[in-house]
Design brief:
The structure is a homodimer of 334-residue chains.
Chain A: E1 11-19, H1 36-47, E2 61-63, E3 72-82, H2 84-88, H3 98-109, E4 114-121, E5 134-142, E6 157-158, H4 165-173, E7 177-180, E8 194-204, H5 218-225, E9 239-245, H6 252-264, H7 270-278, E10 294-300, H8 307-319, H9 324-327
Amino acid sequence: MSETTNETCRIRLRIDLAYDGGAFFGWATQPAIRTVQGEIETALHRILHVEADDPDEPLRLVVAGRTDTGVHASHQVCHLDISPTVLERAVGHMQVPATTALEHRLQRLLPHDIAVHRIGVAPTGFDARFSALERTYVYRIADRESEVDPRLAGCVLHIDDDLDLDAMNRAAAATIGLHDFGSFATPNPGGTTIREVKRAFWTRVPSRPLIPDEGSDTVASDMAASGAYIVPTLESGLVCFTIVADAFARNMVRSLVNACVQVGIGKRDLDWFLGKMATPKREGSTGPIAPQGLTLEHVAYPADDLLASRAQAIRAVRTLPDTGTSGTRDTQER
Amino acid sequence: MSETTNETCRIRLRIDLAYDGGAFFGWATQPAIRTVQGEIETALHRILHVEADDPDEPLRLVVAGRTDTGVHASHQVCHLDISPTVLERAVGHMQVPATTALEHRLQRLLPHDIAVHRIGVAPTGFDARFSALERTYVYRIADRESEVDPRLAGCVLHIDDDLDLDAMNRAAAATIGLHDFGSFATPNPGGTTIREVKRAFWTRVPSRPLIPDEGSDTVASDMAASGAYIVPTLESGLVCFTIVADAFARNMVRSLVNACVQVGIGKRDLDWFLGKMATPKREGSTGPIAPQGLTLEHVAYPADDLLASRAQAIRAVRTLPDTGTSGTRDTQER
């Protein structure tokens, strides 16, 4: 009768989570290696009493931003299709909805370097990967001017040099727009390295104005005017790179950071960077920088009523057979 | 001829540093136990080729805020008196001033959970402990509303409950001024628990307004108006207690935090807290909360020309024999 006769009825869950990537070989499941996806899927199978190789209930996560080995996520998003009867098994003796029960059980079972923020039924048309409008990554560096906080050693890269943020921002500005980032990324088979960067900038997080006074920056003096006492931030003094794009190709953020840093320490000049942007060619001088400074911080989705059309549009772009290399996007965004 | 004939000429160094307190049994040197002071003094003896028990060159650090086991410091201050000839040994083959050389060598030799921000010759009259005007501590909590970041597990306390920040702020407000904190602190022998709290408040760090819009808070909209893209902070969503006092008695901050949290989760009411403030008496219900959420964030000193008079005044207050218990301060501030 209907087109969906052969499909099992499934519920799509949206899972928001965070992880310290330091002890993971990236997101994607790989045999006999510790990955974020692997840990969560293993926990799901245990909680829901599903065999690991059950073909009817694969419990496979689809993620918004595939992160590499050692890269962190503070706000990652994935989805999971699950049959209602299997989901219901999460409830057990709890007096809460099944999604809440699953959230609590996952939070308890998962190792300390993964935190589940929340689990809910996804709105109609939601696809963690294809509905996403844009991803935001932040790369944190302590340079010679920064005061090092040992508590952040796992998520900050130390560079024993002075960074010229103005020069780095001139390089970053050249990445904005639709470009082929072939100098800074490795294409997947059949994919491209064309991406649209929406924002990209370097900033030094203001040093903590603990006792507000007239000499401090705008934000601080606003707080002072309101009589508030500024709560110091853990990141004060760090150099942070924020980049927002529709999607990222493999190694793209870390390669751009590496190139900007080379400009920032004076090893390369802006023309070198502009040349790499103009002629997309992968080679040694534009390889990726160390992973520990990088964090996926945000994935933006459209309003609920636009989710399905967004996913259809992206899916179409990425599966069009006739557009050739230049029109398609990478088949696995990050 | 002069009063100082018998004193060896010494240089006083000011050392600014940070540490992750998680793997230390506090600041103060203790035999056969890993402490921050112990690690640094051991490193100093090695770098400067001084025997550990050399009576002429003790290399003893005097600290602004003695931290307990598991408590962190992002901006600790201490001083060290050292003879010029010994200090000069730090230079070796380096072409830099002795203080810079010592700074570099310490940074390299110290373990990863201690970071030396800088070392310099202290201004005349400077005393890390007695010149200090005030100390600032911050306690960080993730409650049920917070999004947990696994990277911060070592410096945030998780509380699986909802916190009523208004109630906690009413309690915090009652601590401001000169009070006997005997319900919240353990006096040292011969000392008191009277301290002057200058500021004390709870706040939830605003959630990161990654994409600035009209609906966000003042700070965010300021940034939006200037066209900047907000760099997210690691602490967004956490509940932070900031407290500033002339000095702190033993266990005082963590005991106040514990009492505020009991009010915040509704286990105790404000009257209970006010009663503890009115009748200073140490007992079980006002013991200290876990240490990992606590960080010494700042030590304030007067302008250079007021350092000596401040130190003299504080030293006098703390050594006056006739004032009795109520007039003296604790002999070891934190």
